Amino acid sequence: MSKFTFLVVYVILILGLMVNEIQGQEGMCHRVLGEVGCGIGSCTALCLQILKGMGKCVATDRGLICLCNFRCIS
């Protein structure tokens, strides 16, 4: 009986952790910050200041753009 109870509790905990992980992935948003160039740290600093996210310069066919990844506010 105790093995079955332990197994049920274990499965419930694992499922709870999986739900939290899935929700975390869905909560990410992306925005291109056009008002900043890709100078030394300017993209990262502006993204952190405005959206509290992580900014990175990405090469496209039109040149470098500042892509900001941040947690969506629902």
TrEMBL record:
One Gene Ontology biological process: killing of cells of another organism
Superkingdom of source: Eukaryota
Keyword terms of this UniProt record: Antimicrobial, Disulfide bond, Fungicide, Plant defense, Signal
Key word Signal present: yes
Transmembrane segments: none
Entries under InterPro entries matching the protein: DEFL (IPR010851)
Protein's UniProt keywords contain Ubl conjugation: no
Pfam families (alphabetical): SLR1-BP
Signal sequence, start to end: 1-24
Family: Belongs to the DEFL family.
Name of this protein: Defensin-like protein
Organism (species): Capsella rubella
